[in-house]
Amino acid sequence: MTMNIETKQQHVEATMRLAPVIPVVIIEDARHAVPMARALVAGGIPAIEVTLRTPAALDAIRAIAQEVEGAVVGVGTVLTANDLHAAERAGARFAVSPGMSPNLLAAADDSTLPLLPGIATASEAMALLERGYRHLKFFPAVPAGGAKLLGAWASPLPQIRFCPTGGIALNTAKDFLSLPNVLCVGGSWLTPADKLKAGDWAGIEQLAREAAALRA
Q1: What are the residues whose beta carbons fall under 8 Å from the beta carbon of 176, sequence distance 6 or more?
Q2: For 85-137, what is each residue's pLDDT tens digit?
Q3: What are the catalytic residues?
């Protein structure tokens, strides 16, 4: 049973409002998924985007969905209808794409998985707004124009709320979060590869606490 676009947009908005940062995670070893997710949740970051950039990604999503209380696990780097359907079967609760394509949007229409599609221009944002998408990923945020560009869109595109992702760090996140049309940011700094490899879950929890405090 599919949900209409407005219902799915409400789910996306609720996810974006859970915390000021959605971590963008690259998992090389699925065994790291559960302790990593528990550390993020303990630090106040419940929404977690696991990217489809490694063979371990779907197993990681499945494990987090089944074993980590309080986690809202999503899937990132969704490029095709197959990506969307596989993530939905694995237990993902939201999906994020770096851009948009007609086939992916058609698949999203037929899926129960809410999609946060990526855009980099006002024209792309307008095209998605016509289809009922009011919540968008701005990617790659810093190379595409950063906070100044997003701020310039706030007046002509007041209906849209963004999750800028790409090139954002702890010390620059507030530049985006202070904008009226930004609900959260995406960032990879919460789960660096060295801490994942070392199993430094306390370190990841501390990074999550710092990120959660951005809205304090």
Answers
A1: 141, 147, 150, 164, 168, 182, 185
A2: 999 999 999 999 999 999 999 999 999 999 999 999 999 999 999 999 999 99
A3: 49, 137
